């Protein structure tokens, strides 16, 4: 396949999975017609910002959100990257923040667990983020083939670690997926330049899907879901609007950029 249509969903999730799934079903009713189509959902699409800070989690392969994801992928004949969903660890006391990929046949094919956890103080109305208090970090990078394109997986705070992406680029990378829930404060300062840097230095596409707006617990997220081409140009940007952006990635464009500046071959 020489082209793949990609879409990023921007949403303002609540802590209640049923609400978020209902909203997404409404959105999916107007998906673009092109196939193959990869749809990327943001971090914590199914449940975000509970009042008491407790994360939503399911057993792997067993839960209403995972059931729903498989059904949606099959019903719409799409590759569905579920940005992050809490998956309970074997010990049961924590979750992993896991990106699950569902194939158009409805089967889950891939799992990536967020490696870098956001233990950071931010000058916003939350103040202190301590993701590691309820999350186990992932140990492995994951690159997955979708319709002949190599897709590298990352989640939110991973974006700040160029070595995560370079390690994936060693395997040949065509597209980086960045489901996220960047804070409004850090997003305004760093989100777009970080995304563009990852695209430029790895000479690949980036599709980034974000949470956006004011969530019920008062948290504010940055939005600006976007698609960036291998030259670093932003080709779609959601701004602060909820909904879906659609773009396409092309093998020809990847080849052209890598031929114009063979930087990946000049590494030392
Ligand atoms: O835990 C949840 O409820 C949902 N997860 C998140 O919101 C995560 C961990 S707190 N947020 C980030 O990684 C923000 C990164 C960021 O904003 C930056 O790098 O500047």
From TrEMBL:
| Organism per entry | Neiella marina
| Family statement drawn from the similarity comment of this UniProt entry | Belongs to the carbon-nitrogen hydrolase superfamily. NIT1/NIT2 family.
Q: Which residues form the CN hydrolase domain?
A: 4-251
This protein's superkingdom? Bacteria
Which UniProt keyword terms apply here?
Hydrolase
Q: What is this protein called?
A: Amidohydrolase
The protein's matches in CDD domains, at most eight in alphabetical order, are given as:
nit
What one GO molecular function would you report for this record? hydrolase activity, acting on carbon-nitrogen (but not peptide) bonds, in linear amides
